[in-house]
Write a structure and sequence with these properties.
With about 160 residues, the protein is α/β, with parallel strands linked by helices. The chain has seven helices and five strands; from the N terminus they run H-E-H-E-H-H-E-E-H-H-E-H.
């Protein structure tokens, strides 16, 4: 809310006053699991049928980059990666992580009113970076070229 963008407010404040629907929403905010979980729920509610949501920072490169609170002197992705495991199990969406930048998760929502983001906070809230590393192979990671093909097949 301090720099960039067009709105000087938190995402919670934005969604509280928002009455618009969107075709595409890009989430790259506070870099904490709890906030991104809320941002995804709010984004689904603000999405047009057939719309897309993208989430930045799903692929941290080290425990320092993933540590909350931020202790990194460089890039910081926080524990955003945790929502990838919820999206993986959420019914009614097709979810992939495009291996660009720090990992960009994408999913299309045909009917936003029918989607309920899985809430796995009891399992994930206290999970550390080693959980991410041990379960990395479960995540649907694809290249940019694979994304182009996959997204065109979804229409």
């Amino acid at each position: 809310p301090e720099r960039g963008g067009t709105h000087r407010m938190t995402s919670d404040q934005f969604f509280d006053q928002n009455n618009k629907k969107f075709d595409f929403i890009f989430i790259d905010g506070m870099h904490t699991y709890e906030q991104v979980h809320v941002d995804i729920k709010n984004s689904i509610d603000a999405l047009n049928p057939g719309g897309w949501i993208a989430i930045h920072d799903l692929m941290p490169r080290s425990w320092i980059e993933a540590h909350v609170p931020n202790i990194s002197q460089g890039a910081w992705s926080g524990d955003v990666w945790k929502v990838a495991f919820e999206l993986l199990k959420t019914e009614g969406i097709s979810f992939r992580i495009v291996m660009i930048d720090a990992g960009v998760g994408v999913f299309k929502v045909k009917n936003p009113k029918s989607i309920k983001l899985l809430d796995d906070r009891k399992l994930l809230k206290d999970s550390a970076f080693n959980y991410f590393c041990k379960n990395l192979d479960l995540l649907p990671r694809i290249s940019w070229e694979e994304f182009a093909l996959w997204s065109s097949e979804l229409g």
